[in-house]
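so im writing up the methods section and need the Iron-sulfur cluster carrier protein record in one place, dumping it here so i stop losing it
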Amino acid sequence: MTSPDRTTIENVLRHVRTTDGTASVADLGRLDAFMLRDGVLHVAIATERGHAPALQPLLPELERGLVHAVPGCTGASVILTAHRATPSPAPAPTAPAPAGGGHRPLNLGGGAPKPATGPLPPGVGVVIAVASGKGGVGKSTTAVNLAVGLGLEGLKVGLMDADVHGPSLPRMMGMNAQPEVRDSRLIPPHKWGISAMSIGMLVDEGKAMIWRGPMVMGAINQLLGDVDWGALDVLVVDMPPGTGDAQLTLAQKTALAGAVIVSTPQDIALLDARRGIAMFEKMNVPVLGMVENMSYFCCPNCNHRTELFGHGGARAEAEKMGVPFLGEVPLLADIRASADAGAPIVIAAPDSAAGQAYRALAHTVAGALRRLLDKKPKTTNEK
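--- predicted struct ---
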């Protein structure tokens, strides 16, 4: 099925207006991303939080207009990514440039490396990691849906793919174009309400990143320091599996506000998740909680529930280790299909069991992040 024409969708946004006729959807927001899947057109509109009350009543008319205007569209689902105003960032503390500059595998031009800018990228409120002790437990899927879900909660969000050897973010977010380089800094693409950056956007999808530890650490340093993230409430970092160089680099180079640990219910996965929690505790990084992914499978034909990998293991482990349990995510074919299609399940099927589970996870984490942001010292412009 061919992709819908962007101009057609934008014309519908200009046509649908408020009841008093003073503004159109296009005046109050902008088309952020869209995808046609199984006849349903999924559309994300970025807007300011103050415009959301005026836009919300227009969504039914907008969805009807999209169905009428877009060929092959039998249904439409429109979401608003309405963000709160982000305070002006405080000036970053200066620090001497590291001797030699270390490995810089991403050639962005600009000569010598810039001095370190402190424990957080400029303009970023907090940084959190999504991690797991082993691969294959759905960590990247959780990171993507958590980040987009946080955007739907009203936060300004960036998503950084620190899995240098296995970058999956571009495919899961439907980001195909290379990012722009401006003044020797990468400009992260924006889609589904968030900004995102991955080394997978800079290399061919089939190319293997055969790098030793110093090159991996250098790439993570550049993704933190050489990307113009702009003003964000939170930067979500999708970590590689394990407890090695990437995790140490991130903890040493930036002030992690917390970590979300992803595991499946079976004992072997929980064993590795336990090591991940212990690693973050040794690095004095708070563990925000634990998520049980692939918690159960429901047959799409008869709705029979099967606990393929056991059930409740992550909840019991969280209680044992004294960390919050953040919820269960089922094993559904829609999660795989939406990831392959480039739209997170919170966008592609928000009313599904998985979509609701990820939204609940994002709501819980957003509450914790807002409390952290409220405790941060205000800048002069906010006083």
